[in-house]
Amino acid sequence: GENVEQHPSTLSVQEGDSAVIKCTYSDSASNYFPWYKQELGKRPQLIIDIRSNVGEKKDQRIAVTLNKTAKHFSLHITETQPEDSAVYFCAASREGTYKYIFGTGTRLKVLA
Amino acid sequence: DAGITQSPRHKVTETGTPVTLRCHQTENHRYMYWYRQDPGHGLRLIHYSYGVKDTDKGEVSDGYSVSRSKTEDFLLTLESATSSQTSVYFCAIRDRADTQYFGPGTRLTVL
């Protein structure tokens, strides 16, 4: 069936370094790719998203890149800070349908 | 927060008892979802709804039923709770831009 693979499952970086989380999707019809951040005990919250007509999107220290040919998309966080520590989920979706496939999450630890 | 509330926020119950969780939204979104979140499994879809009285199963629907009699309310029922249903349950809506927004979650413990 359709799935989204997310790597790594855990990631530790020093404060100020960059972090990269990668996702691969199987449904070639997917055209919307959101990223969520979930802090301990809280709900997942959207931090950035990208649609298939765009290759890259940035929002301050966060960026997402999409390679439709390879069916990969990645989250890039620059100048990491302790408050970036959380679990990050990617997802792939087909616009206009109910389908929303989540990756299994990456636990990011930013070490001070 | 996209106007989503869940009730109760915490519940402890005993095996075999029925449990109903409520999700309420204030912004008239068509799509609503119920997920469960367990360590090592991420977010797994239980059921979803695409309109009043229109619901369908997700990947982990066994032991769960849902109802949507009004646009704003989506109920999840565990007919006879089991310990394997101990989890955190999140409701979500999907807006017209296809983005899902989550409710605050319900922590359910089945003893």
Describe this structure in words.
- The complex is a heterodimer of chains A (112) and B (111).
- By secondary structure, chain A is mostly beta strands.
- In chain A, strands 2, 4, 5, 9, 10 and 11 form a six-stranded mixed sheet that branches. In chain A, strands 1-3-8-7-6 form a five-stranded antiparallel sheet, with no helix packed on it.
- Helices cover 0% and strands 56% of the residues of chain A.
- Chain A starts with a strand and ends with a strand.
- Chain B is mainly beta.
- In chain B, 0% of the residues lie in helices and 59% in strands.
- Chain B has no helices and eleven strands.
- In chain B, the strands form two sheets. In chain B, strands 2, 4, 5, 6, 9, 10 and 11 form a seven-stranded mixed sheet that branches. A four-stranded antiparallel sheet of chain B has the order 1-3-8-7, with no helix packed on it.
- In chain B, strand 7 and strand 8 form a beta hairpin.
- Chain B starts with a strand and ends with a strand.
- The model of chain B has no long low-confidence stretch (mean pLDDT 95).
- At the A-B interface, strand 5 and strand 9 of A face strand 5 and strand 10 of B.
Task: Briefly say what this structure is.
The complex is a heterodimer of chains A (112) and B (111). Chain A is mainly β and 112 residues long.
